[in-house]
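Appendix B, record 7
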Amino acid sequence: MNPKIWLSSPHMGDQEFNFVKEAFETNWIAPLGPHVNGFEHDLEEFTGAKYAAALSSGTAALHLALIMLGIKAGDEVICQSFTFSATANPIVYLGAIPVFIDSEPDTWNMCPDLLEQAIKDRIAKGKKPKAIVPVHLYGMPAKIEQIIAIAAKYEIPVIEDAAEALGSTVNGKAAGTFGIMGVLSFNGNKIITTSGGGALISDDEKIIDQARFLATQARDAAPHYQHSQIGYNYRMSNVCAGIGRGQMRVLTDRVTQRRKVYDTYLKYLPEFSNFDFQTEPEGYFSNRWLTTILVNPAKNNGVDRETIRLCLEKENIESRPLWKPMHLQPIFENYPSYINGQSEGLFNNGLCLPSGSNLSQDDLERVISNIKSHFHYISQQKEI
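Structure tokens (predicted):
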């Protein structure tokens, strides 16, 4: 069997081990420590956010962000439908109600028109939403400037889910820094990793201070263990932060490498197919975390997304469908939603291709060659 080609595997640099070694040598193994402080500083410098809290996961960051806004049981929170379930889950953790918004065709993210329609409708029903959670999907920023303007009009705070978009910008401003808070993820398949981990970023110092407090079990200032609030074990360890500090030093290179992968697919796949690619609107810069294509059978001799996925799977090449929208998920199907059909079409036709920054040229050519061979086989079958 051919060697495995992963969708997006971790990519270590040269300095991560030195930071981890330092953590061991100084016995800073538990949560918190100098690497956590250093990693937070690195994130602040890179994103332009004034403050950052390094946490155990992006999900933890979003959970704390909602708590910071005082979200309680019965409150409504507007959430992008086309996303991973971790965007919506923390809303339900708090007993709140997710209100799902469909996508627009340019960035595939939250549709500003549907957003405003939903806000007006929820207010008319006596339930003004308490927060808006757009997502910068696959590294492509949402129409965040329009979303922020609508949110300001109705005085609703925005939490950006930038878990997949570290290194992405809109008009030079980092994804995750437009709203009152931004959420980052450093899971193993993200553009940089801390093994597992995430961060909450904000320009509001009080928010980040309180998030750090709650993330360390909400221990009051006392010589004994005293707690006046419910806390969480959400802080990042000094060892994981050491990995993150090493990864931050290669982040710009990782973005460049992923964008080269996208450019290669864009150059060679259209030679024998009619795939649609996720393109950047003017002023947008995507980290190209994953290269995604839309495979319309009507334009590709009957070849659909699933036939390509299975073709690659047989060759030990990992690919996967685009996210199944939240409003179509069994666990969320009974929640309010404002739908235009865009995300369902993306799910039905979309495929994520291997996109790792450590993808070799030979592996990239192998992916393209296998897709090309499949199209050649289909053409021959039709001629017969």
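Remarks on this record: The chain has a mean pLDDT of 95. The chain has twelve helices and 15 strands.
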